[in-house]
Design a protein that fits this description.
CATH architecture of the largest domain: 3-Layer(aba) Sandwich
Number of domains: 2
CATH topology of the largest domain: NADH Oxidase
CATH superfamily of the largest domain: NADH Oxidase
Strand content: 15-25%
Number of strands: 23
Strand order of the largest sheet: 1-6-5-4-7-9-8
Number of helices: 13
Mean pLDDT: 78
Largest sheet: 7 strands, antiparallel
Helix content: 25-40%
């Protein structure tokens, strides 16, 4: 009888773990299937519902400044990379006015309608993509969601780096110039784009901002990410933001008091510059991400924070080579799962996204998680990836967070679900998803620094 009891007990434990994995796959699979349907529908050109689109009336531009054109030209020679703090609508409006508002020709007392203006200016903000209307100096929302990281990856040809407080895209179609310029239509379009680009850059410097400008861009990638009309050719993109020297130790207060078309006033928000990132050149971090449909913001913001801290980074996935995010960003995995040696790293970080769901039932991944716990490594998981820790049976009595939809599954695994943005319980760090990716990454760096 004792022999039978000792055999049944491990069997029950094994069945319990298998049941948890099945529930995770069923629950998350349903959630992700719905998200994928929504995403696929949107990629076919379906814009947000009309009730969700915003029209933002920008503040009137300033037409007189204290600085000189010579000072602006001189300062362009030694610019810092932009930070990612959001700019105010006054600053954004001034940049767009310099790009196109000031150059819109007038017909009598009325501006030429936007539809007849041959160039288009788009701006990517944390809450979506907007089209600038120079005739009324306003922004029309076209898409929701933050696409700055995906755009930065596409134009810089590297999967990490600054994204700027806003990204300004100048696009045009040579067909719109053909009536007036004939065979010189493309040349005329490119010359106008160059003039607009120079105006943006001078205006940025004039506002004590900095920028990264790219005119040799991957046209197809930009058009796909922004879902632009096929007739439009993106010609130039600038990532504009506050220089680090301006925000270090200070607060950058964002007060977008402009009203929408429905005359509702936007809430006042404040962004405070974070303390300086610790420098850890001897630390090594392993980032494990899905082969496809990882959360772009979670991966790139984590890599950016690690690079700022001088941490040595290795990216791993199901296999080495090309990996693709949910928003279309492309990166490279250095290792496949078979090549990972947990003992070589100080921190193991799992990136979430729909593509991370199969990892929750992957025995190889579960063994890597258990090994990281056994060797007392810093173990972190963002968003959906918290389910990977749960399926590996390492979260019992641990305080963790994750996607709100996964609260019951995490609790079923024995975790104490807190629902906070980022949770740190000893060497285990979890987050609620991509919106808190910078805070998640900084918490890992602080843990590595012993803070």
């Amino acid at each position: 009888m004792k022999g039978r009891i000792s055999t049944i007990s491990p069997l029950r434990s094994t069945l319990g773990r298998w049941l948890l994995c099945v529930l995770i796959l069923l629950d998350v699979g349903a959630v992700c299937w719905g998200q994928q349907r929504q995403t696929r529908g949107s990629t076919r050109g379906r814009a947000p519902r009309t009730s969700q689109l915003r029209v933002i009336q920008l503040p009137a531009p300033v037409v007189a400044g204290a600085g000189s054109i010579e000072q602006a030209l001189s300062r362009q020679q030694n610019l810092e990379a932009p930070t990612n703090l959001r700019l105010t609508f006054s600053e954004i409006g001034q940049l767009l006015w310099a790009a196109q508002g000031v150059t819109v020709p007038q017909s009598g007392a009325a501006a030429i309608p936007d539809a007849l203006i041959p160039m288009k200016v788009f701006v990517a903000l944390p809450d979506g993509l907007y089209l600038y209307s120079p005739s009324v100096h306003a922004l029309q929302q076209l898409r929701d969601g933050d696409m700055r990281a995906a755009l930065a990856t596409a134009v810089l040809s590297r999967p990490a780096g600054p994204v700027g407080g806003c990204q300004i895209i100048v696009a045009g179609s040579s067909a719109d110039f053909s009536t007036r310029f004939g065979s010189r239509a493309k040349t005329a379009m490119l010359l106008l784009a160059g003039q607009m680009a120079q105006s943006i850059q001078l205006q940025a410097v004039g506002q004590d901002l900095t920028y990264l400008a790219v005119n040799n861009i991957d046209t197809l990638s930009i058009r796909r990410i922004c879902r632009l009309d096929r007739a439009l050719m993106p010609l130039y993109i600038a990532m504009v933001g506050y220089p680090p020297s301006r925000v270090t130790g200070t607060a950058a207060t964002q007060i977008p008091t402009e009203t929408t078309a429905a005359t509702t006033t936007e809430a006042v928000t404040t962004e405070t510059a974070a303390p300086e990132m610790p420098r850890l050149p001897s630390a090594k971090a392993l980032i494990i991400t899905p082969q496809r449909e990882f959360q772009d913001e979670e991966l790139f913001q984590t890599k950016f924070a690690f690079e700022s801290a001088l941490i040595q980074i290795t990216v791993a996935s199901s296999r080495s080579g090309r990996i693709v995010g949910s928003l279309g960003a492309v990166a490279e995995a250095d290792l496949g799962l078979n090549d990972i040696k947990i003992e070589d790293y100080d921190a193991i970080v799992f990136i979430g996204g729909a593509g991370a769901v199969p990892y929750a039932s992957n025995a190889q991944v579960q063994n890597l998680v258990r090994q990281a716990v056994a060797e007392k490594k810093i173990l972190a998981a963002s968003g959906t990836a918290a389910l990977i820790l749960a399926s590996a049976d390492v979260v019992k009595s641990a305080r963790i967070t994750g996607m709100p939809a996964h609260q019951q599954l995490l609790a079923l695994a024995g975790a104490v679900y807190t629902g906070t943005a980022v949770e740190r319980d000893g060497p285990m760090i979890t987050s609620a998803g991509p919106l808190v990716a910078p805070q998640f990454a900084r918490t890992i760096v602080e843990a590595l620094a012993g803070q």
